[in-house]
Design goal:
71% of the residues lie in helices and 0% in strands. It is mainly α and 202 residues long. It is globular and about 50 Å long.
Length: 202
């Protein structure tokens, strides 16, 4: 259940850390690949810590959601107290390994974690802002991967990343609005969106 609580299936998002390595033609540079891989692992643990923290805060709303009600905390198979310890452990290991890898990467990962905590606490309830926060997570991942190997990213590449990130974030909200019957019970910001608005964003 603890593995499921960490949502390893969502670690695929962190594969964007390899973007600079791939598009910079550096994929077969062993040292740079290993640095990016360890950064990827640290990001996975940090992301999982924020997922657990979010599930703790959203337990009541998740119990009303047709899919999220099956999450370990919402279902009651993992106590909140254990989940808190688990989140703290994941965050400690993630930030500790990030500091060993690179001070800059440590600051980026810390900033990402704080942004996700703020998102879980109140920013997710602000429509449009919530989409921008989700999109910024993808941009941060790409730049984290670039900075950890000291790679340069062009402005055009940045524009592509931002566009793709906004597309994915808008699509996520549109999918949620299509699934839930009562948006106000699962996510407050959904009540501010219409399908037409989200379609236009996408």
């Amino acid at each position: 259940e603890l593995i499921r609580l960490a949502r390893p299936i969502h670690w695929v998002k962190n594969a964007s850390l390899f973007a600079a390595l791939i598009f910079g033609g550096l994929l077969f540079e062993k040292d740079l690949f290993l640095r990016t891989f360890f950064a990827f692992c640290s990001f996975n643990l940090a992301a999982s810590a924020t997922y657990v923290f979010n599930d703790i805060l959203d337990v009541k709303q998740d119990q009303q959601h047709p899919i999220k009600r099956n999450r370990p905390i919402a279902r009651g198979s993992v106590p909140v107290s254990l989940a808190l310890i688990y989140a703290a452990l994941l965050a400690t290991v993630a930030l500790g390994s990030a500091l060993l890898l690179s001070p800059i990467f440590f600051l980026i990962l810390t900033g990402y974690s704080l942004l996700q905590i703020a998102y879980s606490l109140f920013l997710k309830n602000l429509h449009i802002i919530d989409i921008l926060i989700i999109a910024s997570g993808f941009v941060i991942r790409v730049y984290a991967g670039a900075l950890v190997i000291d790679a340069h990213l062009s402005v055009w590449f940045l524009l592509c990343v931002i566009s793709a990130a906004l597309f994915l974030a808008s699509g996520k909200r549109r999918a949620e609005l299509s699934v839930v019957e009562s948006p106000s019970q699962t996510r407050k910001s959904l009540t501010k969106y219409s399908r037409e608005l989200l379609n236009s964003y996408v």
